[in-house]
Amino acid sequence: MATPAASWNARMVLMAWLPPDRRRDLLNKFPLLPVTSRTITDLQGYQSRLSKIARDGYVAERGEAVEGIIGVAAPIRDYSRNVIAAIGLAILEAQHDEISVARTWRQCDLPRRISAPS
């Protein structure tokens, strides 16, 4: 069964901000299984993706969770700036590309608006 794109990406965002030992424990407990032909299933590639998400502050992907869907997600932070949740969006790939979706996502600034003020 495929995982909805928005929750797939929200999970990647939450994983990106976990301590390395907790992340490793979860990846050992729940192996990376393909849900589409674009799903990252190798541990090194997934770890690299999580590092990029933490660096960029969001994830934007195309068809990794659901064929034909672009997924975007970003963290929600508490007053201490800790990541406590994630918010995601799923968009039809036929109507947008990953770059335009990511640009729009950054411009709307929704995760920052929802997060507690710094």
In total, the number of domains comes to 1
The radius of gyration over CA amounts to 14 Å
CATH architecture name: 2-Layer Sandwich
**How far apart are the termini?**
39 Å
Query: Structural class, from helix and strand content?
Result: alpha+beta
What are the secondary-structure elements, in order, as H or E? HHHEEEHH
How would you name the CATH homologous superfamily? GAF domain
Low-confidence stretches: none
Secondary structure tally: strands: 3
Number of helices: 5
Strand order of the largest sheet: 1-2-3
* CATH hierarchy, class: Alpha Beta
* Major sheet description: 3 strands, antiparallel
- Shape from CA axes? flat
CATH topology: Beta-Lactamase
Task: Give a structural overview.
With 118 residues, the chain is of the alpha+beta class. The protein has one domain (5-114): GAF domain (Beta-Lactamase). Helix content is 44%, strand content 19%. It contains five helices and three strands. Strands 1-2-3 form a three-stranded antiparallel β-sheet, sandwiched between helices. Strand 2 (69-77) and strand 3 (83-92) form a beta hairpin. The longest helix is centred in the middle third of the chain and has 14 residues, at 43-56. The radius of gyration is 14 Å and the shape is flat. The N and C termini lie far apart (39 Å). The model has no long low-confidence stretch (mean pLDDT 85).
Care to give the gist of this entry?
The protein starts with a helix and ends with a helix. It has helices at 5-16, 20-29, 43-56, 98-108, 110-114; strands at 59-62, 69-77, 83-92.
For the structure shown, list the relevant keywords.
118 residues; three-stranded antiparallel beta sheet; 5 helices; Beta-Lactamase; 19% strand; alpha+beta
